[in-house]
């Protein structure tokens, strides 16, 4: 098999060749490694190699739907025992942190037969919608190397779109599957709260707002991997029932006629690009051509308040995590990025009453979305406010850094978030990605579907949100859209 042949198959397609003994897992791994050697110096997608592990694994008797398929995991909460993990952090990279247990999601991926040969680039602790950690540097977008791959699953997205692997591990706490899927032209599904496991390192993340899954080129790869990983483990706080039929079988049938609401206005009042509006307008026309009813509407939710509540949870949880890291491991201030330290300082000042009020608001948003879905089957928005930003475009202004350092030194960095400044901080953090947090807070499944490329050949995804536990409906529609407007062959046009 040459590389162009390799590129013509998705994960299930490659696994079928291995099952038929038309190719061996070691041959597929060699092709993936050759492609990685060719393009990763430019992409900076893979930051920690696991080649020895992968080579040994190809010599074992692999089974499962993805048996023999080259795979990569995100360098964040997808631990392999005995292999370095940095979480995108200079401090963990410096001390050479090595976990002693596998993450349960990794165990389930292993049971599907994949061959993992590396860990992918991610922003420090996954706290940004771009991948530019001080520890590893910027992860480039295969469609245009001047642009970023997005975050926090940016390395995985870059590796899949760049043709290194057909499928890679990802995670989503505020859009971290859908954002890089949008920027890199991939299919990215965020499952419902509790759909995939978090153990044994933790029982859940951000009250179930964060969830693990994959980034893929095809809908069926995503469906098959969800079949392989579904369900709680012994550490889980949330339990969700498996559908009566496997997702891979469900997508063989088109969805019924759907009533879909769509909206292109930012929920926090920030600017939305012409590309984002055009992407959704084109998607609306495609949906109508398939017989679906599409109506402009949006949930009765205060988008700015929801964003503030997301930020409150995000910063507070991160503050706790950073404090735990400092307690368990020898660290110094230079081990963490300035932005991380400031966000942690914000979060540390959240009172118990403020935090509980914030969580109570989450329940209100769930109720409002449930009422919304009494009238509609799905909700459509842009996945991101624009195509991928340029590398270095999304960063803390240089003039702010000395102020932030000075306030940190005095223990007063939290003062930056007082009064009207908190609105500015929320908008600055989320203006690129204002649409994704809704489904994390409410625990609803959502997906980014690659249906639009602009004149510069940069993609922008269409996001669909479904009622709780209705991944089946999302995947059915995605498969129908994929058949009506195929995107798989577009990856062959990428030149790196």
UniProtKB/TrEMBL annotation:
PROSITE patterns: AMIDASES. Residues 27-475 form the Amidase domain. It comes from the Bacteria. GO terms for molecular function: catalytic activity. Belongs to the amidase family. This is Amidase domain-containing protein. It comes from Acinetobacter schindleri NIPH 900.
């Amino acid at each position: 098999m040459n590389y162009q042949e390799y590129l013509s198959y998705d994960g299930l397609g490659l696994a079928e060749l291995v099952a038929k003994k038309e190719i061996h897992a070691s041959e597929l791994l060699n092709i993936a490694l050759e492609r990685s050697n060719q393009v990763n110096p430019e992409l900076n997608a893979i930051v920690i190699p696991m080649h020895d592990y992968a080579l040994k694994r190809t010599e074992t008797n692999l089974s499962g739907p993805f048996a023999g398929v080259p795979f990569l995991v995100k360098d964040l909460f997808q631990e392999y025992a005995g292999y370095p993990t940095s979480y995108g952090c200079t401090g963990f990279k410096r001390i050479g942190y090595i976990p002693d247990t596998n993450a349960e999601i990794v165990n389930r991926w292993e049971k599907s037969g994949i061959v993992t040969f590396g860990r992918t680039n991610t922003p420090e602790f996954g706290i940004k919608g771009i991948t530019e950690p001080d520890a590893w540097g910027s992860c480039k977008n295969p469609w245009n190397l001047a642009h970023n791959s997005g975050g926090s699953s940016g390395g995985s997205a870059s590796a899949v779109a760049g043709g290194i692997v057909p499928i890679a591990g990802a995670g989503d706490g505020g859009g971290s599957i859908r954002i890089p899927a949008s920027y890199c032209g991939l299919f990215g599904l965020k499952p419902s709260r509790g759909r995939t496991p978090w153990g044994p390192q933790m029982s859940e993340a951000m009250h179930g707002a964060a969830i693990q899954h994959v980034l893929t080129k095809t809908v069926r790869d995503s469906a098959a991997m969800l079949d392989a990983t579904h369900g709680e483990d012994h550490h889980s706080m949330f339990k969700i029932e498996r559908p009566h039929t496997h997702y891979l079988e469900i997508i063989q049938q088109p969805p019924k006629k759907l009533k879909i609401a769509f909206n292109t206005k930012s929920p926090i009042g920030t600017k939305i690009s012409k590309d984002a509006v055009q992407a959704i307008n084109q998607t609306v026309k495609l949906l109508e051509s398939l017989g679906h009813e599409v109506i402009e509407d949006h949930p009765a939710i205060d988008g700015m308040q929801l964003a503030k509540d997301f930020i409150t949870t995000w910063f507070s949880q991160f503050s706790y995590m950073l404090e735990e890291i400092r307690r368990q491991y020898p660290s110094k201030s230079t081990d963490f990025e300035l932005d991380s330290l400031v966000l942690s300082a914000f979060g540390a000042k959240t009172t118990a009453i403020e935090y509980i009020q914030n969580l109570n608001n989450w329940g209100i948003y769930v109720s409002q979305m449930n009422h919304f879905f009494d009238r509609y089957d799905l909700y459509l928005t842009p996945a991101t406010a624009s195509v991928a930003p340029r590398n270095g475009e999304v960063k803390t202004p240089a003039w702010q850094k000395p102020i932030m350092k000075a306030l940190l030194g005095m223990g007063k960095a939290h003062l930056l978030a007082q009064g009207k400044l908190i609105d500015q901080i929320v908008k600055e953090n989320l203006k690129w990605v204002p649409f994704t947090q809704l489904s994390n807070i409410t625990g609803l499944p959502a997906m980014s579907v690659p249906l639009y490329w602009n004149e510069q050949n940069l993609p922008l995804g269409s996001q669909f949100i479904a009622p709780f536990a209705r991944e089946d409906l999302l995947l059915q529609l995605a498969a129908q859209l994929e058949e009506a407007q195929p995107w798989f062959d577009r990856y062959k046009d990428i030149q790196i």
